[in-house]
Amino acid sequence: MIELDEQQQQARTWFESLRDAICAEFEAIEAEAGSDAKFAYTPWDRTDPSGAPGGGGVRGVIKGKVFEKAGVNVSTVGGTFEGDFAKTIHGAGDNPNFFATGISLVAHMANPHVPAVHMNTRFLVTTKRWFGGGADLNPPIPYAEDTADFHAAMQAACDAHDPQHYPRFKAWADEYFYIPHRKTHRGVGGIFYDHLEGAGDAGWEANFAFTQDVGRAFLDIFPKIVRRRMGMAFTEAERQQQLEWRGRYAEFNLIYDRGTLFGLKTGGNIDAILMSLPPVTAWS
Amino acid sequence: MIELDEQQQQARTWFESLRDAICAEFEAIEAEAGSDAKFAYTPWDRTDPSGAPGGGGVRGVIKGKVFEKAGVNVSTVGGTFEGDFAKTIHGAGDNPNFFATGISLVAHMANPHVPAVHMNTRFLVTTKRWFGGGADLNPPIPYAEDTADFHAAMQAACDAHDPQHYPRFKAWADEYFYIPHRKTHRGVGGIFYDHLEGAGDAGWEANFAFTQDVGRAFLDIFPKIVRRRMGMAFTEAERQQQLEWRGRYAEFNLIYDRGTLFGLKTGGNIDAILMSLPPVTAWS
Predict the structure, then answer these.
(1) Closest chain B residue to A278 measured between Cα atoms?
(2) Which one of A197, B138, B233, B280 has the lowest number of neighbouring Cβ atoms within 10 Å?
(3) In total, how many domains does chain B have?
């Protein structure tokens, strides 16, 4: 085990309790669809390259009737960034020590009318301390109503803390979740933020409260959208459209995603890092 | 169109005739399996970032009973490398002009007992002129006999030209076709070579002859292996094993493959560049 200070422990406790609430909600949706699918949890440990304890996490996966494959990973890791990678991380240029705790979730849905989704929030410590995260909606078949509701939920979480947050973090998501070689976005957006530092304990508290609200907003809106769409009939052509759309999603995660790169570069658990990849995917 | 010198034209003609021979052989295999699947060809043009003509290519795809999806791309492109990318290419550090002609082939097979395969050979011109290429066998369910025969064919092609070629190019393939984050090779290897330059016209002729022999060796051995395995019965579990194995293949191509990166960085045709991705893939 690695030693945690008070803020680190508080953040970790929040991310794990958010995981519990989300998993309970997803299992309730499965039950409504007549399935008894539950999350299966696999703990994993990380060895730091320095040889010191490196922390670890728990990967949870559900494969059900509504959630074709949803993975939620909580991890609390720390140690030393290897080599030049430290230079790419905020506050680690001259000191490669780091700590990170967070939750990462990706849901790929059985029904192409139900959007896939990604949500991730995290607390990072180097010589700096900051929060980062975001959530974005990834419908194979987009519905304007779902997109509007998802953005409205994220905006409400943002507006409660800072009127600048939503315009800034929405634009950041539009920039981040873009696939240059396809000249297209991977989904219909959401919010993305990083390096959210505050002055002193009050600043930390404020940013922690915001990060909690992003998690709560996700927990509120996504299940609503799932319940709205999960009963819709779909055609073989719509399913094929979903599988090919998932190919774009896999391309984004393997080529561009910062979290995937962070995991690979810090020797995280491969199954947890690549949990975001879609279950069945097609490239035509 | 871009202008070609004598060597460029000869190389291009060879790659296109090799494509014709391979496609005819693959279609013959489909016919033996009672299918009338044929390659469909899509020409594409490339615009150089300089605005000059950038060449182009032809993408061929067959989706049949034996070949679930095989793609063969011939391209002849030229122009100017953009920005810092030039610095990463042999002989282009001080002069970003380039020319490239080649053939690239990937076959994903319907039957998990039949190995997938990759073969690519190319002629590059910057301030240097060289050949590169290779072929590797990617069986979801490996058979020692197939592996041995494939390596023997590649070795024979190598040994006819230089006793150093095979040990060097086999080791290079073992190093290249490796997936660090999975700590595994993507298949059972083959050969990989690059920057094969010779002194003067005689050196060029020798390396061109070697590159032709690599193509001929592939054309000889791969169809034999396909015919040996294509009639074998397989289980649902073996098919699933194949789909998950394809996930590793997609990870390699999207994260590590130099040819994919070259294509994305030089504004090639996206469908041709990503033609190598498996048709149906699963991540558990």
Answers:
(1) B283
(2) B233
(3) 1
DSSP tag of A139: -
Residue A85 belongs to a domain with what CATH number? 3.40.1500.10
Structural domain contains residue B282 = no
Contacts of B267 in chain A (CB under 8 A): none
From residue B50, give the alpha-carbon distance in Å to each of B57, B79, B80.
Answer: 19, 7, 7
Is residue B100 domain-resident? yes
Residue B71 lies in a domain: yes
Distance CA B74, CA A283 (A): 20
**Do B255 and A251 count as a contact with CB atoms less than 8 A apart?**
no
Which residues of chain A have a CB within 8 Å of the CB of B274? 251, 283
- Choose between B1 and B51: higher pLDDT: B51
Show the domain range for A227. Answer: 6-276
Instruction: Give the tens place of pLDDT for each residue, B226-278.
Output: 999 999 999 999 999 999 999 999 999 998 888 888 777 777 788 888 889 99
pLDDT digits (tens, 9 = 90+) for B14-38: 999 999 999 999 999 999 999 999 9
Distance from CA of A127 to the nearest CA of B (A): 28
Question: Is B151 known to be catalytic?
Answer: no
Please state, in angstroms and rounded to a whole number, the distance separating the CA atoms of residues B163 and A166: 65
B40 in Cβ contact with B62 (< 8 Å) = yes
Does B1 reside within a domain? no
B90, B108, B113, B118: which is the annotated catalytic residue? Answer: B118
